[in-house]
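INFO batch 0412 | record 1 of 1 | parsing
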Amino acid sequence: MALKAQIVANWVYIGPREEGLRVMAPVLALNPPVTNIQVVPWNKLVATAAGGADALLCQKNSSRNTWWANLRNLPSSTFQASFDELNNFYTLYPEARGTTISVETFPNQAMAAVPDDDSAYPWRDALGHIQIGVATESGNAAGDPAAEAGNSLARRLRDSWAATSGYPELSVYVNYARGDEKLRQRYGSRKLPRLAALKKKWDPRNVFAYNNVLPMEYRE
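INFO prediction complete | emitting C-alpha cells
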C-alpha cells in the first residue's frame, strides 16, 4: 500500500465548526479511513492545512520542482489517467514517492463577478489550478534520474491537464509560473497590449526585470 498513490483531501471552511460540519456532511458520510478536523486561527491555516504539508516543502536535502496549469474543467478521465501514471511512476522510482498531484480550488463567485476589463488578471473564470510537484530525496536534481523522470512525467501531465482544462492552450496563474510558459499563457493575450504600454510608461528602464518580465511592446 505504501508504494501506491492515495487520495488525500483537504477542505477549509471559514466559519464556526458546527456550520463547517454541516457543509462537510456529504463528504464525511463517505466514511474516509482517516479524518483530522481542526479549528485553527487564520494565521495558522497555511501551516496546518494538508496535514502540515507546508513544512514538508521546506525539508533539507530534497529536490522540489512544480508544474502548474489553470483549470476551467475538472474532467474525471484526466484525474484517472494522472492517478494511473503516478502509480506507475512510484513503482519505477520509489525514492520519488513524495511526488504529488494537487488540485487547488477556491470559491470563485466574487472573482467571476468582477468584469474582465476591470483589472489585469486574465483568468477570472478558472475553477482552480493543478500542480504536479516532483519531489525526490536527492539534494540536487541535476543528474538525478528520478528527478529527470519526474520532470518528464510532470510535463506530460501538465500537457494532458491543459488539453482538457477548458482553455484553448496552457494557461497559468502568474505567481505559479515556472518560466517555460509563453508570455500570453501567464498574462493573457488580451491583457498584454495594455500591460506593455503601462510598463513602457512607468518602468522604461526595466527596473522590474527579475521574474515574469513584461515587455514594453507586445504583438501576438
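INFO post-check: The radius of gyration is 20 Å.
INFO record closed
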